[in-house]
Structures are given as C-alpha cells and as structure tokens.
Amino acid sequence: MSNRVLVDVKKFPSAVLQAGEDEWIGSIESFVKDVLLKLGKSRWEVSVLFCDDNFIRDLNREYRGIDNPTDVLSFESGDFYPGEDGKEWFNAGDIVISVDTLKENSKEFLVDENEELKRLLVHGLLHLSGMDHKDNSPEQEMLVFQEELLKEFTGVKLL
Q1: 126, 157, 134: which is closest to 38 by C-alpha?
Q2: How many CA atoms lie less than 13 Å away from 159 in the CB half-sphere?
Q3: Which distant-in-sequence residues (6+ apart) come within 8 Å of 113 by Cβ?
Q4: I want to staple 98 with a disulfide (CB 3.0 to 4.6 A). Which of 56, 72, 104, 121 is the partner?
Q5: pTM, rounded to two decimals
Q6: Can you spell out the DSSP letters for 34-81?
C-alpha cells in the first residue's frame, strides 16, 4: 500500500534549502515513504515542515513550555479519514525540523547534514508511531532503534 507525504518550507534565509528546492523536496518525500514502509505503515499521511530556529522556538514554547529552539518536533494527529477510493487513511501528524539546528547538530556530532536530516526525519516518524524516550541518552530503546533503522538507509542522499 502507499503512503502520502507532504513537504513544505517556511521561507527563511537558508541557502541549503533555497538552492535546488524542488530536487530535495522530492527526495524527502521518497525517503519518508521508504521509512514508513520499513516500519510497516500503510495508508498513512504525514506532513514535514522545514523552518528556522525562531519558528520552531515559538512552537516549542507554545506546545512544550520550553523557550528554546530544538531540532525536531512531532505533532501526532491520529485521525482517520476516508480516501477518494472509500478506504480509510490515517493522518499520523506533522514533523517540524529546524534547518538551523540541523546544521548545528551535524557539526556537534561530526556527521554530514544529509545524515542528520535522515536522523531527524526517522526520529519524527518514530514519535508519530507512538514511540518515545525519557531523555537523549543513546541507550534509550527508541534511540537505539532509530540508529539501527538509519543504518538501513546509509546510501540514501537527500541533500
């Protein structure tokens, strides 16, 4: 079965996302669909929004009470709706990624931006799948699974 992925960009001054925008949006959609299939998800709809630190900071403050930017936020929806074919679709929710923090993370963790982008997308999808973690220590079950899953997509280029 198929899944739907909607990708959008909150316009901001970031050369990474403005250059060749059409090209990378297609690769994001394809990557997210591949991860959803690997997770056994079918007839899911997910939206991904790229933004800057200011935008995600406002969301983080409003929804989590944390007045700082973060790398990724997930907002579960969990609604079912009938598709055009009469079959039920699952609106899983939204993933919001700060490109500013993505860049900082890639430097801090000594990985390229492509790898960090994949990590944030997978992280968001796992949250939408109902997984969670208490903190960011790497031994957390969700984070261990995240890294195992990422290994399966090592050769995938998004940026």
Answers
A1: 126
A2: 15
A3: 16, 102, 103, 106, 159
A4: 56
A5: 0.90
A6: HHHHHTT--SEEEEEEEE-HHHHHHHHHHHHS--S--SEEEEEEEEEE
| Predicted confidence (pLDDT) per residue in 17-62, tens digit | 555 555 677 789 999 999 999 999 999 999 999 999 999 999 999 9
Question: Parallel, antiparallel, or unpaired: how do β-strands 72-82 and 88-98 relate?
Answer: antiparallel
Whether pLDDT at 95 is above 70: yes
Helix (H) or strand (E) holding 125: helix 113-128
8-17, 32-41, 81-90, 134-143 — which one is most confidently predicted on average? 32-41
CA pair distance 125, 32, nearest whole angstrom: 8
In whole angstroms, how large is the CA radius of gyration of the chain? 15
Cα-to-chain-centroid distance, residue 72? 7
Helix (H) or strand (E) holding 85: none
Is the pLDDT score of 11 beyond 60? yes
Token output for 116: 């960090």
Query: How far apart are the C-alpha atoms of 84 and 65, rounded to whole Å?
Result: 39
Please give the DSSP secondary-structure letter assigned to residue 97: E
